[in-house]
Design goal:
This protein is an alpha+beta fold and 184 residues long. It folds into two domains: 80 residues, Orthogonal Bundle (Arc Repressor Mutant, subunit A), CATH 1.10.10; 63 residues, Helix Hairpins. The chain is 58% helix and 16% strand. The strands form two sheets. Strands 1-3-2 form a three-stranded antiparallel beta sheet. A hairpin with a 2-residue loop joins strand 2 and strand 3. Helix 1 crosses helix 2, helix 2 crosses helix 4 and helix 3 packs across helix 4. The longest helix is centred in the last third of the chain and has 33 residues. The radius of gyration is 22 Å and the shape is elongated. The two termini are 34 Å apart. 14% of the residues are buried.
Length: 184
């Protein structure tokens, strides 16, 4: 059985490494575990923090595309759920941070033309690695969007989507039960 409290606390710690507050991470963890929209009051009680803190962090999650504010008929309170593509938004946020690092490296290369070769090589290295990785992650996100838009299997509990080659070299996704992967 999953220890929900431990998971939520671990999400809080993990969020701090991504520049979020611990409360935002805990809120994100709680929303991952919830299948129904949650009110600020419920979330504040569950996480043992003030409603004002939850409200502030919920707005931040909404601003970053990780959560959505929803309404319930006949209820004036705000409710929150995870955004449908919350993980893609998480990746995009990280990409924006890498892009800033790449920009800084390029700026330093142009601002330090007389720097020792080793220093310039370090900034070039940062620029080149970022350019290489960012291009591939962007390609992967585009491929994911196309995959999702075509309604191809995304893998569910107990199964996973596996790319297989068909005659002619085209790829096809096949859903296979977990634990029954083909070897070789």
């Amino acid at each position: 059985m999953i220890d929900h409290h431990a998971f939520i606390e671990r999400m809080g710690l993990a969020a701090e490494t991504d520049g979020f507050s611990r409360i935002a991470g805990r809120l994100f963890g709680a929303l991952i575990l919830d299948s129904e929209p949650r009110s600020l009051d419920d979330l504040a009680d569950q996480l043992a923090v003030s409603k004002a803190s939850i409200s502030t962090e919920a707005r931040r999650l909404v601003d970053r595309g990780l959560a959505e504010r929803v309404a319930k008929a006949g209820d004036r309170r705000d409710y929150y759920v995870l955004a449908p593509d919350f993980f893609v938004h998480t990746i995009r946020f990280r990409l924006s941070r890498w892009t800033k690092l790449q920009s800084l490296a390029r700026e330093m290369l142009s601002d330090l033309p007389d720097a020792p070769r080793l220093v310039r090589d370090r900034f070039s290295y940062i620029d080149e690695v970022n350019e290489f990785v960012l291009a591939r992650v962007e390609d992967a996100l585009r491929e994911w969007a196309e995959h999702k838009d075509r309604g191809l299997p995304r893998g569910r509990a107990g199964s996973r989507a596996v790319a297989t080659r068909q005659k002619g070299g085209t790829k096809r996704l096949v859903k296979r039960p977990l634990g029954k992967e083909r070897l070789g």
